[in-house]
Amino acid sequence: MNREKTVTALFIWILLAIFPVRVLSESILDKIERTGEMTAGVRRDAIPFGYEDKDGQWTGYSVDLVNLIHQELEKKFNKSIKLNLQEATIENRFKIVQDGTVHLICGATTITQNRLQKVDFSLPFFMTGAQFLVTLEEAPYFNINGTLANIPIAFIPGTTTQEIIPQIYPFAKWKVVKSREEGVNQLKKGEVQAVVSDGILLVGEIVQQGNDPRDFALTPRQPITTELYGCMLPKNNPTWKKFVDNVIGSDDIFNLQDKWFNIEKSQFPYVIRTNP
Asked: Residue 270's pLDDT band (boundaries 50, 70, 90)?
């Protein structure tokens, strides 16, 4: 190898040795401060967490939560930070967190041990669980303490609800539906007597279809399962997780919850459980 090639190879080796270390060691907080941008993933089809309102505006509890995190970032760095919202879907949500496309995703994603192998999670920002949605007329006769034998109940396969509830009530007449929308439509037509899913998402679907949640009933009042929703974060970024956790643990989160889920005044009345 001649001298010129040796010098070139040495120079390339030095670049490879120095710059990757800098990139790999840069935390998400450092990157946001350096670039002046934060990118967050939010669903468009998970009412009331992320959806489009009647005016086509992207809104939801999770959108407000992301905005709150963004505001706290601007306070921390004492400068303007650009917020980029990117649509997250059931199919891509883990991938875009893992590959760094987004800095976090806040939505209706349950914290589970298996999912913690792929991503980190913030502190829980919402607690719900499996409940049966029934009409007010059927509510007095829907006995969850019985076997529910031969009662037609709609459920969505591939969910944490589906993994548990049919095992508790094996004699019910379980009917597969592709979505909560389909399940609620069948309930209103009398084709099923109940739909089972996360209670808050059933409330969201009722509102999405133009109905008042108060015309239906969720049973039992205390959900059968415990579903803790957290923001998904890239793994091995402890300072970023701590920052997001501090925002979720602040008093501001209670104001957001009251805005979205107040049982008397909000569009999505729902009692947020504080104990499993």
From this structure: very high
Output 226 or 243, whichever has higher pLDDT: 243
C-alpha triplet 163, 169, 170: angle, nearest 5°: 85
**Regarding the domain delimited by 130-225, which CATH topology (the fold level of the hierarchy) does it fall under?**
D-Maltodextrin-Binding Protein; domain 2 (3.40.190)
Are the CB atoms for 105 and 221 separated by under 8 Å?
A: no
State the Cα–Cα distance between residues 172 and 152, nearest whole angstrom: 6
CA distance 203 to 225: 17
Q: How far apart are alpha carbons 183 and 165 in whole angstroms?
A: 16
Q: Residue 45: what pLDDT?
A: 84
Would you state the pLDDT for residue 17? 47
Helix axes 252-261, 238-248, angle to 10 degrees: 60
Q: Does domain 27-127+229-261 have CATH number 3.40.190.10?
A: yes
Whether pTM > 0.90 for this model: the answer is: no
Classify the phi-psi angles of 150: left when phi > 0, otherwise alpha if psi is within -120 to 50, otherwise beta. left
Would the pLDDT of 194 be above 70? yes
